[in-house]
Specification:
Elements lengths: L12 H4 L2 H8 L2 H9 L3 H15 L15 H40 L4
Length: about 110
């Protein structure tokens, strides 16, 4: 999933008051790209479906779809996709931890000692 950092060039007063945006602006493009690439294919698929659902999805073989919006609505869509990504990554990590805990706990359960 490519990462486009163009939105980080926002120098408006509102953007400058945002500590996360300030932090992101200080990061190198390589770091931002590496973090973006760390999303699993499963997360990328869910985000893609989510964004398509938000924008509307028509079959490309029958329609030439063009979306027109303003900057604020596009920013909202980007924020939604980012929050979905962060949420899904946390849930993916939680699932991995639960699976690991289950695999560690299973040998005790299989002995019938409890």
């Amino acid at each position: 999933m490519p990462f486009h950092s163009d939105f980080l060039r926002d120098n408006s007063e509102e953007a400058q008051a945002n500590p996360l945006l300030n932090y992101l602006q200080r990061q190198s493009p390589e770091i931002l790209s590496r973090v973006a690439k760390s999303a699993s294919p499963e997360i990328q698929q869910i985000i893609s479906h989510n964004v398509q659902g938000l924008v509307g999805m028509l079959p490309s073989e029958n329609f030439d779809v063009k979306v027109i919006t303003d900057r604020e609505n596009l920013a909202g869509l980007l924020a939604s996709a980012m929050m979905t990504g962060y949420f899904l990554r946390q849930m993916e990590q939680r699932m991995q931890l639960e699976n690991l805990a289950d695999s560690v706990a299973q040998p005790h359960d299989s002995t019938g000692g409890e």
